[in-house]
Amino acid sequence: MSGQKCNYFNCGKSKRNNPDLSFHTFPSNEHTMKTWIIHSGNIALDNLSPKKLRKRYICSDHFDKNMFMNLNQKVRKLIPNATPMKYAMNNSGSSPKYENSETTNFETPVKKMKPVEIQGRILDFDTKSVVHF
């Protein structure tokens, strides 16, 4: 368990240093998996195969309390189809904020990324503008 590390953008918390947090593997459902990638703000995860993503984690800090079946127990379990909170940079560009709105902004990546289909829309990360979802 000590190898568990959060893959949420700019988090990196580990089970070893944060034993009170729970760490959750990416879901096997492809649509939900893509949603987790987008909400995490870590678009580099899109280059991983589903098999490799199933070995990655998001810590409980990035889930709303209503996403847990058993919030007050030591081993916390997510509800079916739970998704992490959306990541977005704050106005200073330094620390995360969580959005509840329908629009999420992503910074344009430096390297070429393959397009992703989410909810019938193609998100092309290889653009010069901010992607709005």
UniProtKB/TrEMBL annotation:
<dbReference type="GO" id="GO:0008270">
    <property type="term" value="F:zinc ion binding"/>
</dbReference>
<dbReference type="InterPro" id="IPR038441">
    <property type="entry name" value="THAP_Znf_sf"/>
</dbReference>
<protein>
    <submittedName>
        <fullName>THAP-type domain-containing protein</fullName>
    </submittedName>
</protein>
<keyword id="KW-0862">Zinc</keyword>
<dbReference type="Pfam" id="PF05485">
    <property type="entry name" value="THAP"/>
</dbReference>
<keyword id="KW-0863">Zinc-finger</keyword>
<feature type="domain" description="THAP-type">
    <location>
        <begin position="1"/>
        <end position="87"/>
    </location>
</feature>
<dbReference type="InterPro" id="IPR006612">
    <property type="entry name" value="THAP_Znf"/>
</dbReference>
<keyword id="KW-0479">Metal-binding</keyword>
<keyword id="KW-0238">DNA-binding</keyword>
<dbReference type="GO" id="GO:0043565">
    <property type="term" value="F:sequence-specific DNA binding"/>
</dbReference>
<dbReference type="InterPro" id="IPR026516">
    <property type="entry name" value="THAP1/10"/>
</dbReference>
